[in-house]
Amino acid sequence: MQHLKGKIAVITGGNSGIGKATACLFAKEGAQVIITGRRQDIVDQAATEIGHGAIGVVGDVAELNHHKELADMVKTKFGCLDIYMANAGVINLTASGNVTSEDYDRHFATNTRGVFFGVQALAPLIRDGGNIIVTSSLAATKVLPDHTVYAGSKAAVAAFARNWAIEFKPRKIRVNILSPGPVETAILGKLGVSEADRPEFENYMASLIPAGRMGQPDELARAALFLASDAGSFVNGIELHVDGGMTLA
Ligand code: NAD
Predict the structure, then answer these.
(1) Residue 11, ligand 1, Cβ within 6 A
(2) Taking the C-alpha atoms of 123, 126, 131 and 134 in order, what is their torsion angle to the nearest 10 degrees?
């Protein structure tokens, strides 16, 4: 049985990591998937790998026009939408004393403003009974070294999502927060940890996780499927921690 048969799903940052794994799973489950990313070649390659007629759209979530153009495309091609996953994100770990205003703005333009204006542009197309998933982070609730700016940008989107769960009540649109712990994706290469220090870093992260290891993108994709499908039909406004228990550790 396909759990998303006939559904139309947009996944920002769907050309890599958690977003791509989710796009693959949603497509296998019968959804028409539309992924976004910043680079044409990577988006095209990902859409081909996802298959099932997946469509790739290039754009920067920090640009308001991108959301408007994406909404126009979805409206013209499909008329409506069922699932919007605001997943694109960036990270750069820096102690607060060293954060530049450019770095601060980049986190908030992508992780926070990109989510807000994406939902503002796409939510009007979501059919009654559809749903929104916002990818936040364990860092939004747990203090981790040098995560302050990233944590703030991710805590804000969790707050947006809780408010939207109430705002969209008249249209019965569920809004939930997917909160990953450390997951093996390309984003880990952007943490400022050198290749040489990477094994030590990964061992250290694993030691903090009760599951004893980092997560895999597929494990987040399955959680997203739960939230997006009828399996999660009575789940609304929650923060789903998919982190091997790290929130508690
Ligand atoms: P990733 O680097 O593989 O994916 C990030 C995606 O976001 C990429 O597709 C990238 O193209 C896209 N992106 C970044 N900036 C963009 C912009 N300005 N416009 C459009 N697209 C943009 O990393 P991932 O781990 O799959 O990250 C997915 C989400 O999960 C992010 O929001 C991230 O903050 C969050 N997250 C990841 C982890 C982890 O350990 N991997 C932990 C907690 C939260």
Answers:
(1) no
(2) -30
- Asked if residue 236 has its Cβ within 6 Å of ligand 1, the reply is no
| Fold topology of 8-248 | Rossmann fold (3.40.50)
Rounded to the nearest whole angstrom, what is the distance from the C-alpha of residue 214 to the centroid of ligand 1?
16
Count Cβ atoms below 10 Å from residue 5 Cβ, excluding itself.
Answer: 9
Ligand 1 midpoint to CA 186 (Å): 8
Write out the DSSP string of 221-239.
Answer: HHHHHHHHSGGGTT--S-E
Q: Tell me, in angstroms, the distance from the centre of ligand 1 to residue 167's CA.
A: 26
d(CA 211, CA 59): 36
Dump pLDDT digits (tens) for 201-221: 888 888 999 999 999 999 999
Domains in the chain: boundaries? 8-248
CA separation, residue 180 to residues 17, 90, 140, 165, 238 (Å) = 12, 14, 10, 20, 13
Q: Among 7, 32, 37, which residue's Cα sits nearest to residue 20?
A: 37
Q: Where are the beta strands (DSSP E) in 38-102?
A: 55-58, 81-86
> Measured in whole angstroms, how far is the alpha carbon of residue 52 from the centre of its chain?
21
Whether the model clears a pTM of 0.95, i.e. scores above it, the answer is yes
Active site residue 150: yes
- pLDDT tens profile 111-150: 999 999 999 999 999 999 999 999 999 999 999 989 999 9
CA angle 9, 30, 81 (to 5 degrees): 25
For 60, the token pair is: 């920067």
